[in-house]
Write a sequence for this structure.
């Protein structure tokens, strides 16, 4: 059936006879109940940015247009609106949602996709890897969970998608993220002992995204999932190689297909025997209805019908790892593979530890999550498996690792900022550098947690042969951004960037100037006073050039970027100005212009 024919018919009626619905029936779902949700748009859901000074104000604004916290979200971090995604009922609600998202006070995100980070449950001070990070909803969720001392390495191979990741980092003023661009299957190492936690939310067919991507109804077939199987396994396996003992890797997809989910987990356990599948406690999302993973599943043809054993064996797109563990044991001879029956039975018994989320249970999209732990006893060296090359395990071999030369620098290289620059910026803006590191590239000055220096930049890192990359480099990672660009040099002056202001609050030890609320109101209406006039009314500003001014509002102390020259002017974009206008009960700037 063509796409045009889909558009001309009622989706619910047409969707009943699709491979996707046949998959749902094969999984044992009540197809009518499932379809009633799977064919309807998602509700508008989002995360609240946790550490903004005006969080209470944000929540009150959201409640005024019907928003409520999701009952299963701890600390009210996730909310839902009483309307469908992107379908605010009036101009005011639409304006509020857009303004809060664009200013970084909320992050629109499907509720189901929040699960992998909740399952990982990362903590402040940890070094976490997001292997397939763009557009950044999970990476930013991790960054918020481990702030201020933890760091997330957000990896994305595609240049176009990296731009979305960079944009979301800036929108949320996230300073504890390193953005890396490499193929997840060949991701560069960090120094030992490895990562404290990993999220592998791998590319998938999106068979559980029918509520936001209606193309799935007419495009998806079981063969699609099998075509991504090897890529999914290889990405997850690379993560398993980079994970330190005693810590967790979360594998997830937005697919319902067992060949992208339980089959991948089973194959990962075969290839990485140092991993174990562990139960997922619901304490982080208590009240959310979820289902156990599958221990057995059928192989389906292109229409979603069950293939018999002989037909499945003869299909060219179907490989032995696609079969459930019990089927592998039964069909070992026909599959022409050697099978460790004890291992297969053990894998099958533990696949119920995986977690499945279906559309109709909680009015969400569908999702799959599995949690795998690196067994400490399997790697007594105490480091990630990538640091245990077999050829050098023998301590009596006499081999000594060679210290390699630093890789050559280029215009994209990032280095610790010179102390003179850091001191200049700290003095101008009244900043404290405790537990922070400062990074310099060109005319940008970035801030990041001290952990970046301590665990990544200032440690030697073995290559795959066991030789050592020296400290003082991020290689073999290919980092394109370190932390948050907080300052830009223009006309030999370091100016604070607007996107960095929320992050700079944590560093400020003194307030450079107090801006009265009535002065702010006038400036938002276009007043740009000569400094003589401003000084007469409100007092002198000591510094010329860029300045961060503190303005006490009912919801807390706002930091306002300005420029002191012949006049005092605001250095804020329309989004920033409109947030202040809303707090001062002023109409949006666009309304006044009209």
């Amino acid at each position: 059936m063509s796409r045009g024919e889909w558009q001309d018919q009622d989706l619910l009626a047409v969707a009943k006879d699709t491979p996707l619905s046949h998959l749902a029936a094969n999984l044992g779902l009540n197809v009518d109940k499932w379809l009633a949700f799977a064919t309807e748009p998602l509700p508008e859901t989002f995360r609240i940015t946790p550490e903004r000074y005006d969080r209470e104000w944000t929540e009150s604004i959201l409640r005024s247009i019907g928003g409520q916290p999701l009952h299963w979200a701890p600390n009210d971090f996730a909310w839902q609106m009483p309307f469908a995604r992107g379908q605010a009922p009036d101009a005011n609600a639409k304006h509020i949602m857009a303004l809060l998202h664009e200013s970084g006070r909320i992050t629109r995100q499907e509720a189901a996709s929040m699960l992998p980070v909740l399952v990982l449950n990362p903590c402040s001070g940890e070094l976490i890897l997001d292997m397939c990070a763009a557009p950044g909803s999970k990476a930013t969720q991790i960054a918020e969970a481990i702030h201020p001392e933890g760091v997330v390495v957000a990896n994305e191979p595609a240049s176009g998608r990296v731009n979305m990741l960079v944009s979301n980092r800036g929108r949320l003023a996230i300073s504890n993220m390193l953005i890396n661009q490499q193929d997840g299957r060949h991701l560069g190492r960090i120094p030992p002992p490895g990562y404290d936690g990993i999220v592998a939310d791998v590319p998938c067919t999106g068979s559980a995204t029918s509520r936001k991507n209606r193309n799935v109804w007419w495009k998806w077939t079981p063969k699609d999932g099998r075509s991504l199987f090897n890529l999914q396994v290889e990405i997850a396996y690379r993560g398993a190689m980079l994970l330190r003992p005693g810590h967790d890797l979360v594998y997830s997809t937005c697919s319902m297909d067992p060949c992208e989910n339980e089959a991948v987990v089973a194959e990962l356990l075969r290839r990485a025997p140092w991993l174990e599948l562990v139960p997922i406690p619901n304490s982080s999302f208590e009240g959310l209805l979820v289902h156990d993973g599958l221990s057995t599943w059928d192989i389906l043809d292109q229409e979603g019908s069950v293939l018999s054993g002989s037909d499945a064996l003869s299909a060219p797109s179907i490989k032995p790892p696609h079969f459930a563990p019990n089927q592998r044991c039964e069909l070992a001879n026909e599959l022409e593979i050697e099978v460790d029956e004890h291992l297969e039975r053990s894998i099958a018994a533990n696949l119920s530890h995986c977690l499945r989320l279906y559309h109709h249970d909680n009015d969400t999209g569908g999702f799959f999550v599995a949690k795998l732990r690196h067994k400490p006893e399997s790697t007594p060296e105490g480091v990630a498996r990538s640091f245990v090359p077999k050829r050098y395990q023998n301590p009596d071999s006499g081999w000594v690792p060679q210290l390699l030369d630093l890789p050559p620098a280029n215009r994209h290289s990032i280095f610790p900022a010179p102390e003179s620059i850091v001191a200049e910026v700290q003095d101008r803006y009244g900043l404290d550098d405790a537990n922070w590191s400062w990074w310099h590239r060109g005319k940008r000055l970035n801030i990041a947690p001290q952990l970046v220096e301590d665990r990544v930049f200032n440690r030697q890192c073995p290559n795959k042969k066991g030789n050592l990359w020296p400290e003082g480099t991020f290689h073999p990672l290919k980092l394109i951004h370190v932390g948050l660009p907080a300052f830009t040099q223009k006309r030999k002056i370091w100016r604070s960037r607007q996107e960095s202001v929320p992050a700079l609050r944590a560093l400020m030890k003194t307030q450079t100037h107090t801006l009265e609320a009535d002065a702010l109101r006038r400036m938002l209406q276009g007043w740009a006073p000569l400094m003589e006039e401003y000084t007469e009314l409100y007092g002198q500003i000591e510094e010329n050039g860029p300045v961060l001014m503190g303005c006490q509002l009912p919801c807390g102390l706002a930091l306002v970027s300005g420029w002191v020259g012949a006049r005092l002017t605001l250095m804020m974009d329309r989004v920033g100005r409109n947030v202040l206008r809303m707090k001062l009960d002023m109409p949006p700037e666009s309304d006044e212009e009209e």
